[in-house]
Amino acid sequence: MTEGRSCPLAYRYQPASLCGQSTPVTEDVLYVIGGLYGNPFALDEIERMALAEERQGLSVKLVFNGDFNWFNASDELFREINNRVLSHTASLGNVDYELSTPSVGAGCGCAYPDFVDQGVVERSNQIMGKLQDVAGAHPDIQKRLASLPRYHCLLFGGLKILVLHGDPESLAGWGLAHESFAAGNGQQVEEWFRASGADVMAATHTCLPVLWAGDVDGRSCAVVNNGSAGMGNLRADPRGLITRISRTAAEVEPVAGIVAGELCVDLVPVDYDLNAWLAQFDRLWPAGTPAALSYRERVLGGASLTSADLVFPPVL
C-alpha cells in the first residue's frame, strides 16, 4: 500500500448492501455536511442557517458525512468539533476513520488518484500524523468515532437518499468526484444506482462540488457532492457549501440546484466568518506547515470552478 494513494480493505463495501435498510427522515429539511475540516466558524454558520429555517417553521436534520476533522489540530478544538458534530447524525470519512482506527500504511487514507500531485499526498500524510497525535490524547472521542457507520440510507420525500463519503464502493473512492464526471463516468454511476437502489447519492471526500441528474432504466436519479463545507469551492469565493434537500426552496440562494422527484437538491453556501477562521488557522498551521502549503490559498480564495461548472450533463 502506498501511503495516501491506496486505501485499506476495511474501507470497501458492496453497492448492493448500501440501501438494504433505510431510516425515515421526519424533518422538513435535510442538511448533508461533508468536509467541515475542523472549521468551527463554518459550523457556527450552519447551525445559524438551520435555526433561521426553524424560525420559519421548518424542522432541520443535520447529517455529517465525514471529514469533519482535519485542521483542528489542538486539544481544545479537537474536542469542540467532535462533541458538536457527534450530537447530530454522523458517519465516517477517511480522516475520522484514521483518527479512530489507524491503518498501517494508509497515511491520510485519502486514496488520491494519479492526477493529484505527490507533494499534496505527502503533506496530507503529515497533517494526518499531527492530528493522530492530538486524537491519541482523547480516547473517549476515538471510541465514539470508531462506533460511527460508514454510510446512511435515509428515506425522505419518498426517495432513498444514500449519504456516503467517497463512492458506492469505498469510503475513500473518487467515483463521484468532479474529475470523474468530467471524464465521462456516467455508465459507472448508472451501474451504482442499479445495484444500490438509491434515488439520490449525497457524497463528499473529493473537495470539489458536483450535481448530476440522469435517467436510470426509467428512474430519475441524482448525485450531489458538496465539495467542502469548511473551505471555499468556487473561484474567488471562500464560502463553504453544504447539500440542502427539501420540498421547500432554500431561503439562502443556492449556487446550483437540481430537482429529484418532489425534492429540491441544492448546493447552499456557508458564509462563515473568514477572518476569524483564518486567524485560528494561521495559529494552528503557520506558514511553511503542510496545511498552510496545501490549503491556505484555497481557504482565502476558494477553488477554480464557477457555478456553471458544477452541473452534469453540462447545461448548454
Helix-residue proportion: 25-40%
CATH architecture: 4-Layer Sandwich
Question: How much strand content do the residues show?
Answer: 15-25%
What is the fourth-level CATH superfamily?
Metallo-dependent phosphatases
Computed over alpha carbons, the radius of gyration is 18 Å
CATH topology: Purple Acid Phosphatase, chain A, domain 2
Gap from first CA to last CA = 42 Å
- Poorly predicted regions are none
Whole-number tally of structural domains:
1
Q: How many beta-strand segments?
A: 13
Give the overall silhouette: globular
CATH top level is Alpha Beta
Structural class: alpha/beta
Please summarize the sheet with the most strands.
7 strands, mixed
Mean pLDDT: 96
- Helical element count? 9
Order of helices and strands: EEHEHEHHHEEHHEEEEEEHHE
Biggest sheet, strands in spatial order? 1-5-6-7-9-8-13
Describe the protein.
With 316 residues, the chain is an alpha/beta fold. It contains nine helices and 13 strands. The chain has helices spanning 40-55, 75-85, 94-100, 118-135, 139-146, 178-182, 186-196, 274-284, 290-301, and strands at residues 23-24, 29-33, 60-65, 89-91, 151-156, 159-164, 200-203, 209-216, 219-226, 240-246, 256-260, 263-270, 311-312. Strand 2, helix 1 (40-55) and strand 3 (60-65) form a beta-alpha-beta unit. Helix 3 (94-100) crosses helix 4 (118-135), helix 4 (118-135) crosses helix 9 and helix 8 packs antiparallel against helix 9 (290-301).
Short description:
The chain contains nine helices and 13 strands.
What is the strand and helix layout of this fold?
Elements: E1 23-24, E2 29-33, H1 40-55, E3 60-65, H2 75-85, E4 89-91, H3 94-100, H4 118-135, H5 139-146, E5 151-156, E6 159-164, H6 178-182, H7 186-196, E7 200-203, E8 209-216, E9 219-226, E10 240-246, E11 256-260, E12 263-270, H8 274-284, H9 290-301, E13 311-312
Helix pairs in contact: 3-4, 3-5, 4-9, 8-9
